[in-house]
Amino acid sequence: MSFYIAGTGSAIPEKVVTNDDLAQFLDTSDEWIYTRTGIRQRHVLTHEKLDELAIESAKRALADANVSGQDIDLILCATMRGDTYTPSLACTIGEAIGSHAPSFDINAACVGALYCMEIADSFIASGKAETVLVVGAEAMSKLLDWTDRSSCVLFGDGSAAMVLKKGEGRLAGVLSTDPDSHVIRMPNIEGINSPYNQIGQEKLAMHMDGGEVYKFAVNAMGKKIEEVCAMANLAPADIDWYLPHQANARIIEASRKKFHIEREKVLLNISEYGNMSATSILVLLDECAKKGTFKKGDKLLFVAFGGGLTSGAVIIKWKKE
Ligand code: UT7
Predict the structure, then answer these.
(1) 286-304 pLDDT per residue, tens
(2) CA-CA distance, 21 to 201, in Å (whole number)?
(3) pLDDT of the residue at 131
(4) Helix, strand, or coil here: 253?
């Protein structure tokens, strides 16, 4: 017995930054960004805090699943960095929803939501939890070098959540890493005013070898789709909906073509949000769930890759009406 998705919610910053806005201070253009990535705009935190968005998306998911904070047995938050190192963002969310459940953050970069699903599966399978809250929350705009046009144009901020409940739903899941500390790297601050070590040895911003990530991504997405379908005893054609990590529309298109997947089955929202790391897949899920895209019994395949380098895929049968 594993879990099904009982509710979803999301919260996105108000401020929209278009490609043309970026071209005001970077040597770039809407044409370059759109044709290379499929991105038209992204949302960026201004007056809001990431904590607030994460709490709001969690509350929306709880309401959608018709459960309260006290019903939650485990809170997992996929994030690369919350507003505070401690408390973790998961603990901050727990405080806001009145939960005393074990709560911790997971950093698996863009694959974070899938890592959370697999951890939730283990807690539920071992009898340690029946209802799990998974939240994705990323403030990418605070982690970027805004003078580096090859990376800062790709990302956006946002938060989304889902409630997982014990029951039939998850059909298979696979996670892995291909450890590499160079192609995507985001150092953090090592200490302030310490006489023993100095800050500023590395810039607190993302370094990325886009071409290398691209090659890894196309390969990893294909491998994970194959592996997870084999585990569930399904062919890629048996999947009703693909929810791929929204990093680059060209990467998604390459995977789609490899498996001859019909274009209509591959869900996209990258043009509006860019890459929101761990949050992307959850925002897509919430939007499609609210639009009524999924029918009861539909098979959804989530697939993602990211810094680490991490990758993973999960297949879920949709249970809601
Ligand atoms: O969640 C994981 C996060 N990361 C990713 O998913 C990144 C994966 N990689 C990619 O999406 C693509 O590699 C990029 C979109 C980052 C780059 O696309 P590309 O087709 O691989 O372009 P490129 O790196 O080969 O660059 C081509 C040219 C270069 O100029 P030169 O050297 O040919 O003169 C770049 O300097 O485009 C230039 N360039 C830009 N030009 C205008 C790079 N960024 C920009 C920009 N605007 N924003």
Answers:
(1) 999 999 999 999 999 999 9
(2) 31
(3) 98
(4) helix
Residue 10 CA to residue 115 CA, distance in Å, equals 19
- CB atoms near residue 85 (< 10 Å): 11
Instruction: Give 210 Cα–ligand 1 centroid separation in angstroms.
Output: 6
Q: How far is CA 80 from the centre of its chain?
A: 10
- 3-state helix/strand/coil string of 7-51: EEEEECCCEEEEHHHHCCCCCCCHHHHHHHHCCCEEEECCCCCHH
- Using CA positions, which residue lies closest to atom 23 of ligand 1? 211
Give the pTM. Answer: 0.96
Residue closest by Cα to atom 35 of ligand 1: 150
The ligand 1 site (C-beta within 6 Å) comprises 28, 32-33, 36-37, 110, 149-150, 153, 208, 210-211, 213-214, 217, 247-248, 275, 306
Closest C-alpha to ligand 1, atom 27 = 150
